[in-house]
Write the structure tokens for this entry.
Amino acid sequence: MDLGPLRPYTWALVLGLLVPVSWILDLVLGPGVVVFVVTGIAIVPLAWFLGLGTEELGKHAGPGIGGLLNATFGNATELIIAIFALASGLTEVVKASLTGSIIGNLLLVLGASMLVGGLRHKSQTFSREASGTQITMLVLAVIGLVMPDLYVLSAESAGGVSSLTLQEMSEVIAVILLLAYGLGLLFSLRTHKDIFNPVTEVEERPRWSKSFAAGVLLVSTALVAVESEILVGSLEPAKASLGLTDLFVGVIIVAIVGNAAEHGSAVLMAHRNKMELSVAVATTSSTQVALFVAPILVFISLLFAKPMTLDFEIFELASLVLSTAVVAAVVSDGRSNWYEGALLVMVYAVIAVAFFFHPA
């Protein structure tokens, strides 16, 4: 059978067969561990095609609009999963998945990319200025996420926390983070784009037609929405059966499911000695979650019974601050090797183990 433009992605098409399988299992078995696992795996190829559709549309639209499309849809899968989780009242899982996504991108994705790339190419280089800018944006986001917790701690010692004040504070901080994200796009796509694209290459031609790319994007988005609803519906029964906490499920499992396709792409780029792209994927995805996805979810949550605030578990914030500090040190010299990658992966493993045993 001729698969046409999809021929290079046979693996994703094969995994995509799990989409109807997940529907059948959900009808026959009902929500549970099996449905949760199958649905989580099925989301991976859908997220991959969603990313490909966005990339191909971007090639037709040109560098400026293409960059904006990639920035907007870069974390679409995670955003969709989070919206369904908010609708189900799983606010703590959503917040945990946000911190988990940032930590996972900084430590697991970047670490695995450096490890795989370093084993094949010994030492690789990337732009210190570009990665430094992304880390600076991330530091701003971390400050924005820490302040509500500092308010909660100080208010508790002073006599009580006002949920209304916390919500209002979260909304104002969310606006500031979105403004920072918008300015970051202006900086990276317009005024200082040479920093993020220092090497002028022959412009890559689209492999897909505009209509085909748009169709893949729309179908993938719709299927991700359907699968996300099933995944969220199975989350509570699966969590109870496996004896896992909201914190571990959000920080580790949901975060990995939402970003798995992007993770694979970053590691593949590093293997091809394109470390610049791998670092960009890891750091840009982290800043997108912190400066775009998190604040957007604050406002979307107002549509549901349980609004989301930007106060996180101290354990989450400590892990986030430490991860940002470690990665800032690693990327500061603009060079990477397999040992640095292995250390980042080990730091992620330590954090994952700590979240597994955390009682919250």
Notes: The chain has one domain: 4-357. The radius of gyration is 20 Å.
